[in-house]
């Protein structure tokens, strides 16, 4: 069988623990990865895990892409395309999983020969930390394809800026795709003439300094220049306060912070979904911190996480000191966060997933005007950003420094830091 294949992706057929292809639009990365895996799976029995950070249904996976390539390669008689799997006549199997919301399922996946992480830009540190040791079969490989956006995205930092030993890393663009259609080539050239900076990101695979419409763009840039994303140790002489955004079907996000002098030290972050409150209380108890106040959003007085009692009641009954964050509009909360940001120091490693949320938190686009609206986009970055907004509202200092404001349902007062 004679099969056409992009020259820049020939490295996929060479052995390596990590194989990374990144770059702009039109480089045929997904097309090439899928084709290579189907060819290899026809040659020998493989178990292939096709993963991406978010996959709420099989329609959001590479399942359809692989099905198209099976037809194009003339392998329809060899591969059986099932609803949620693709099986080869020699025992090759393609399975599909989301990473962010299926940690237990990913951990239990055994015998994977190749894991292909598609659209990997948004994969979190936590997801990588869970996935990589799961792919542990002798000779197993991890394939990664993505279009980069920010240099500080976890995937770009981990696999392009500081790639693992022996990793094969290739940048590929539309110029490397011999089957790139002329109509899209003209689109790329038109954008290059109209907006060269946008062209470099969209078509040439260059990273942006900040995302378009990023809400905390200036604050993140300033913190980066001041080296405030760094190593921030826990101070055992100061209490740790937590700040929550609640969800069950959606994400629950928690920031851990200490007030030391005139600084707000953000020492930790945790997020997850699909769990009752007991899961998150256990995560708090597993950490070596001495806690102060646990700040919950106002819906904690009526929201339930697997109990007939409110979250506020459950936490109080468990011995935690609970405060309800004062009500404030989203716009006012964002302003509070912008004001507070200049005094925050973040532990870059422990807070990596939360920082990824803050960097990617952006305004929504008005469908009528095509311009950014005044409303934040509700997506995967929202929950960590909302929890940080609650942190800023709770830590506002209308009077003396080094104080935590404790106004809310339980009354007013001041607590020394």
If you had to describe this structure to a student in words, what would you say it looks like?
Residues 17-206 form the Phage terminase large subunit N-terminal domain. It comes from Methylobacterium oxalidis. This is Phage terminase large subunit N-terminal domain-containing protein. InterPro entries: P-loop_NTPase, Phage_terminase_lsu, Terminase_L_N, Viral_DNA_packaging_terminase. α4 links the parallel β6 (114-117) and β7. The protein is α/β, with parallel strands linked by helices and 417 residues long. It has helices at 29-43, 63-72, 103-107, 125-134, 154-161, 182-194, 196-202, 217-225, 277-286, 311-317, 330-341, 352-360, 382-394; strands at 18-22, 47-52, 79-81, 86-88, 93-98, 114-117, 141-146, 168-171, 229-230, 240-245, 251-260, 263-273, 291-296, 321-324, 344-347, 363-365, 372-376, 403-405, 414-416. α6 (182-194) packs across α7. Mean pLDDT is 88; it is low at 398-417. It has 13 helices and 19 strands. The protein has 2 domains: 7-202, P-loop containing nucleotide triphosphate hydrolases (Rossmann fold, 3-Layer(aba) Sandwich), CATH 3.40.50; 217-416, Nucleotidyltransferase, domain 5 (2-Layer Sandwich). The strands form 4 sheets. Strands 3-4-5-2-6-7-1-8 form an 8-stranded mixed β-sheet, covered by helices on one side. The chain has a 7-stranded mixed β-sheet with strand order 9-15-12-11-10-13-14. The chain is globular, with a radius of gyration of 24 Å.
């Amino acid at each position: 069988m004679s099969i056409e294949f992009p020259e820049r992706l020939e490295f996929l057929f060479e052995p390596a623990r990590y194989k990374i292809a990144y770059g702009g639009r039109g480089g045929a990365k997904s097309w090439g990865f899928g084709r290579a895996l189907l060819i290899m799976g026809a040659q020998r029995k493989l178990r292939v895990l096709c993963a991406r950070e978010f996959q709420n249904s099989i329609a959001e996976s590479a399942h359809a892409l692989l099905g198209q390539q099976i037809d194009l390669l003339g392998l329809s008689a060899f591969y059986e395309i099932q609803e949620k799997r693709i099986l080869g006549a020699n025992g090759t199997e393609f399975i599909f999983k989301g990473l962010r919301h299926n940690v237990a399922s990913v951990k239990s996946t055994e015998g994977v020969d190749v894991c292909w992480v598609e659209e990997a830009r948004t994969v979190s540190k936590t997801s990588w930390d869970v996935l990589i040791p799961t792919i542990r079969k002798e000779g197993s490989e991890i394939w990664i394809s993505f279009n980069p956006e920010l240099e500080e995205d976890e995937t770009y930092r981990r696999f392009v800026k500081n790639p693992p030993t022996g990793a094969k890393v290739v940048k590929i663009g539309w110029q490397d795709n011999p089957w790139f259609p002329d109509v899209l080539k003209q689109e790329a050239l038109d954008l290059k003439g109209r907006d060269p900076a946008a062209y470099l990101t969209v078509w040439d695979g260059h990273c942006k300094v900040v995302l378009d419409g990023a809400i905390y763009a200036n604050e993140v840039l300033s913190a980066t220049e001041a080296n405030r994303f760094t190593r921030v140790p826990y101070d055992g002489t100061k209490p740790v306060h937590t700040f929550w955004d609640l969800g069950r079907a959606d994400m629950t996000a928690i920031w851990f912070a200490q007030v030391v002098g005139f600084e707000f030290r953000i020492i930790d972050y945790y997020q997850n979904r699909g769990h009752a409150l007991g899961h998150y209380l256990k995560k708090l108890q597993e950490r070596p911190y001495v806690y102060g106040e646990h700040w919950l959003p106002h819906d904690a007085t009526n929201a339930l996480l697997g109990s007939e009692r409110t979250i506020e009641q459950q936490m109080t009954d468990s011995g935690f000191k609970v405060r309800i964050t004062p009500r404030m509009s989203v716009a006012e909360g964002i302003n509070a966060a912008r004001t507070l940001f200049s005094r925050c120091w973040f532990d870059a490693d422990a807070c990596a997933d939360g920082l990824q949320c803050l960097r990617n938190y952006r305004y929504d686009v008005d469908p009528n005007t095509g311009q950014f609206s005044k409303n934040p986009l509700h997506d995967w970055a929202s929950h960590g950003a909302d929890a940080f907004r609650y942190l800023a509202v709770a830590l506002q200092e209308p009077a003396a420094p080094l104080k935590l404001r404790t106004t809310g349902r339980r009354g007013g007062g001041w607590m020394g830091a």
